[in-house]
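re the bet — no i am not wrong, look at it urself. input seq straight from the record:
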Amino acid sequence: MTTHLTDIALFHLIKEDSMEAFTALYMRYWEELYGYAWKILEDKAPVEDILQELFLHIWDRRKRLNIDHHVKAYLYKSLKNRIYNFLKANAVKNAHYEALFNSMGQLAEEDATIDRKDYIQRLLCHLEALPGKMRAIARLYLLEGHNIKEISDQLSLSEHTVRNQLANVKRRLLRK
């Protein structure tokens, strides 16, 4: 019944608490507004949130809103403002988090040195528990940084064997 009405007629019915008119306006513009917001944000969750807030705002303030013409222009302008506010808020959040992470950087470096020493100590203990050839391959690869070809040449093993042994080392270390 309300789908054939103009935007202005729908809006006047919305002001009179017509949920049917509100739904018709929503259905008429949701996809188009979604496409516009998507081109800017490229993220489903905030696009849907912003659109929901926009239509909720219209419903909540339906009695006070005065839109006598160009409902579509009002929707786009409101959407544009909401997207701008969202981007501005996220820029502030991102700047805050970046500053926080930067200030934590020095502490993280100090902790990393301690953690690295602890990690290496634990790794050495686990490596010592490995069988002979597996231990040698793991030491060359993990501690000395040799690649598979170098290890196979040094230990006179095929590259395939070295790969298999490294896979076994990984499995064993992950279990510990």
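see?? Residues 7-95 form a domain with the Rna Polymerase Sigma Factor; Chain: A fold (CATH 1.10.1740.10). told u. also The longest helix spans residues 71-128. so pay up
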